[in-house]
Amino acid sequence: MELPTKANLNKLLNELEELNEEVVEVDGHFLKAGQCYRYEISPPHVLFNTDCPETLKQKISSILTKYLPPNETSSQ
To answer: Structural domain of residue 16, as residue ranges?
Structure first.
């Protein structure tokens, strides 16, 4: 399983860090986006909370698609 290059990993993590500061609404409560998911590097994957908004999932998927090798994003 191929990992992202170091440069791409840094870019990916920077974008996720920026996204984590956004506020999302979950069941009437406002949370930072980073509270709705967890990104792990080895192997690269994302675990979403069951109530994570679909729009946030789409944003994260878009970020991953930019920086991970094509075969790594197919498991999203």
So the answer is: 1-46
